[in-house]
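Box 4.2: Ligand-aware structure prediction
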Amino acid sequence: MERYYQPEIECASREQIERWQSERLIAQVRRVWENVPYYRKKMEEKGVTPEDIQGVRDLPKLPFLSKADLRDAYPYGLMGKPLKDCVRIHSTSGTTGKRVVAFYTQHDIDLWEDCCARALTAAGATDEDVVQVSYGYGLFTGGAGLDGGSHKVGCLTVPMSSGNTDRQIMFIRDLDATILCATPSYAAYLGERMQELGLGPEDIPLKAGIFGAEAWSEEMRRGIERTLGIKAYDIYGLTELSGPGVSFECSCQNGMHINEDHFIPEIIDPDTGEVLPEGAQGELVITAVDKEAFPMIRYRTKDICSLTYEKCPCGRTHVRMTKPKGRSDDMLIIRGVNVFPSQIETVLLNHGYAANYQILVDRVNNTDTFEILVEMTPEMFTDSIGEIQQLQKTLSLGLNSMLGIRPKVTLVAPKTIARSEGKAVRVIDKRKI
Ligand code: DLL
């Protein structure tokens, strides 16, 4: 049995990690200065040259890159290598504006797969495992990333992609799949479908799942762990920074280790851009120090989280980030109150509902309307109007105490909210602001 564990990197001392980061940062800044006119101009505007960057501590001197820059420079303006050296593109699932298109050299693919292999290993994978990859394949990074990582670990890889849920369940059972990779909402749906088919956790051989690409709560984790009979691990990443595997959970399930030999994290105040101290919550900014084709420096992820350098019992020394509680741009401002979909999910799951809900926001007569459609589970289904009204009221009050604003809650029959095979669509905001 072989494991793809690299303790010399993953458990390196802080001094060693910073030495690697500094060396790689200095070289990356120089490469970008020479090869990416768009970023060089940004550096010139900020009055900084490669000579000013002598190590990680100089990172704050560099300008940020944001999604707006990616849009400005679309599609080729941020490339660090000529097209002939690139071997792949991937793209985001974003629905508004131009999609992000990211480029990869073979070296970039190797380091990305390395990150995904570490994530699988942290979830217990060895070359004896069968990994079913149920993230979408294609432009989305989920399928290709975990597939590549699974190959690196030496697992038998089942490239299922998403969809056709009954066939997914059949393959898990027939091929003895031990690890499932999917979005958490799709994993929850698989569990629901299994229950409908009369199957319990004892009927499937899965032992672990690697779920990410969208925010999910601890309550949702417990639900998936229960219905699938597995340990559910979080994995984080974004297309601009290769894809899944920027960070991943270890068996302690207490924050995601950022692959610090490849990525340097910072937390900033999203309004002022000021770098915040360890433990403070803010926007995650990542510098990719050895990506070649799409070299992101101080990229603003928009994801809100915090960092801890505290020792992790698993032995890995790479810094941990908390689960992103939502994106600063996913945050809804309703009647002036900041609302994150994840807060709503927590309340619903605490009240025994499944995470099938949709948030509807509109503006009528200059006032925001705020309604949440919540699916009843088959066990709690009732068609007594009195009972439904009582349940709606209880939920609405529960949400009010979490959010500081009271939504209208409408309970709907089981299975009426459309399921997604990829990322769930949680918010429908019809306001034209
Ligand atoms: O979602 C990459 C990915 C694929 C990650 C599979 C994990 C597993 P994008 O489509 O570019 O890439 O979306 C990136 O998704 O900025 C976060 O807002 C969100 N996101 C990704 N992972 C998590 C997570 C992929 N574990 C955007 N928790 C990011 C919360 C996540 N949000």
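In the box above, the bound molecule is DLL. Residues 92-93, 135, 141-142, 212-215, 234-239, 243-244, 301, 303, 323-324, 327 surround DLL (CB under 6 Å).
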